[in-house]
Design goal:
By secondary structure, the chain is α/β, with parallel strands linked by helices. It folds into three domains: 151 residues, 3-Layer(aba) Sandwich (Rossmann fold); 182 residues, Nitrogenase molybdenum iron protein domain (Rossmann fold); 46 residues, Single alpha-helices involved in coiled-coils or other helix-helix interfaces (Up-down Bundle). The protein has 16 helices and 14 strands. Strands 1-11-10-9-12-13 form a six-stranded parallel β-sheet, with helices on both faces. A five-stranded parallel β-sheet has the order 6-5-4-7-8, sandwiched between helices. α2 packs across α3, α4 packs across α7 and α6 runs parallel beside α7. It is globular, with a radius of gyration of 27 Å.
């Protein structure tokens, strides 16, 4: 990890110090994904089978997992892992249920009610990557809030194994979380299938989930097409920023940095501290721990573009963090909660020496699908609200229209929108006529 003294740098060097690895959106990548998306739209399931053989070395039998596949998965998953999935799912559901949007009704003027109600997105598509190991945690993080939101149909795609079937742990987690349909499809082709539909895969309204550069590019392309699908958020490589003072344990800090570095060679980890001694100790500990990791080669590639930043104070450390806007922010300082108000931009925050980010990845209850690459400045992580639409409802009584209608008419006139103004004034005139008619009848 490169060591930097923040105080010795100018503005341009500050920018360089916080630069992320460049996202791969080359013309070649864009053109390749465009071709994949076009092929899926043109030839549907046949393309999914062709690409499974080409990219995953898998010959697909059934594109969709059937009852026998779920039964086999249930038999294959170890009881201990089943218990862990159930335990994590319970915490994730408890937290996400508590955070569900509540309906709101406000009387903004006497007789004028404005409400907000939630409605589920009809059909959502979840993408669960597959690499050297299954990712049941991603199933939990996406499927549980989708179920709580009340989505009519939840579709999941995951790359097939060499035998053409979905990983049994992913299938077990999907069934446990109430996913309705699972398909053996991965990569950009799976995103295209869920966005536009094929003979087997139903078209989805919104897509969720992480993936490699091809998956990310496919999500961006379908999101920009009016006939495509919405997506959860822009995505980039995983990242963490650790703020630590001299009370931090170098062993813990190093472990937290490496837990993100092992995600992939384009991941990035940053350590920001006001203690030179801690930075030195963490550097030594990172080298020691990395040497024994199974994914050491991947972690070392990530560490090559990672940073250790010396700052003048912990106050300055939080300024650096807000400027970077990390996906994960770990705070290992004295009285960490006292600094919470200083945090402006971060996907998820982990306070204190005993709160590893790994808990958030798996079983604390918070969601691990988070904004990366600086999007934490403007985006939030996945929640139940991500799977819902917020609809406003307005009801105006006659007397309320008399009270507030002139305000609307004046503003419409100022904007030169006469039809808007008349939609109000014609009603006001009708109310006035009714009032006059009643007055005459009484007289």
């Amino acid at each position: 990890m490169r060591r930097i003294d923040w105080r010795a740098l100018g503005a341009a060097a500050h920018e360089e110090a916080l630069a992320r690895p460049k996202l791969s959106r080359s013309e070649t990548l864009r053109a390749t994904v465009e071709g994949i998306v076009a092929a899926v739209r043109a030839r549907g399931d046949a393309t999914l089978r062709e690409y499974a053989e080409r990219f995953d070395n898998a010959v697909i039998g059934n594109l969709e997992a059937d009852a026998s596949a779920f039964a086999a998965a249930d038999a294959a998953v170890a009881p201990e892992l089943k218990r862990a999935i159930a335990e994590a799912a319970a915490r994730i559901e408890a937290f996400h249920r508590a955070c569900m949007p509540e309906p709101v009704a406000v009387e903004t003027a006497r007789g004028l009610w404005v409400e907000r109600v939630s409605r589920p997105i009809g059909r959502v598509g979840l993408y669960v990557p597959a690499g050297s190991a299954p990712l049941p945690s991603t199933v939990l993080m996406l499927a549980i809030p989708a179920r709580l939101a009340g989505c009519r149909e939840v579709v999941l795609c995951s790359p097939p194994r060499a035998d053409g079937t979905c990983d049994p742990v992913v299938l077990h987690a999907a069934r446990a979380c109430g996913v309705h349909r699972v398909f053996n499809a991965g990569g950009a082709q799976a995103i295209a299938a869920m966005a536009y539909g094929t003979e087997a895969v139903p078209r989805c309204d919104k897509l969720f989930g992480p993936g490699n550069a091809y998956v990310t590019e496919a999500k961006l392309q379908v999101a920009s097409d009016p006939q495509g699908a919405a997506i959860d958020m822009p995505a980039g490589p995983s990242e963490v920023l650790v703020i630590a003072d001299d009370s931090a344990d170098p062993v813990f800090v190093a472990a937290d940095l490496l837990s993100q570095a092992e995600h992939g060679p384009d991941s990035q980890v940053l350590l920001v501290s006001d203690s030179a001694a801690l930075l030195d100790a963490v550097r030594r500990e990172v080298d020691r721990q990395c040497a024994v990791l199974p994914r050491a080669a991947i972690a070392r590639q990530a560490l090559a573009h990672s940073r250790m930043i010396r700052v003048a104070s912990i106050v300055e450390a939080f300024e650096v963090s807000n400027r970077y806007a990390p996906e994960h922010l770990i705070v290992q300082v004295r009285e960490p909660r006292a600094w919470l108000d200083k945090i402006e931009s971060a996907g998820s925050v982990f306070l204190g020496h005993w709160t590893p980010e790994s808990l958030g990845d798996y079983c604390s209850g918070g969601n691990h699908v988070l904004p990366t690459y600086g999007w934490a400045r403007s985006c939030s992580g996945v929640s139940v609200a991500s799977f819902q639409k917020q609809v406003t409802v307005q009801t105006c009584a006659p007397d309320a229209l008399r009270a507030v209608g002139p305000c609307a008419a004046t503003l419409a006139a100022a904007e030169g929108l006469e039809a808007h103004r008349r939609a109000v004034t014609l009603r006001l005139a009708a109310l006035e006529r009714d009032h006059s008619a009643r007055a005459r009848s009484v007289a």
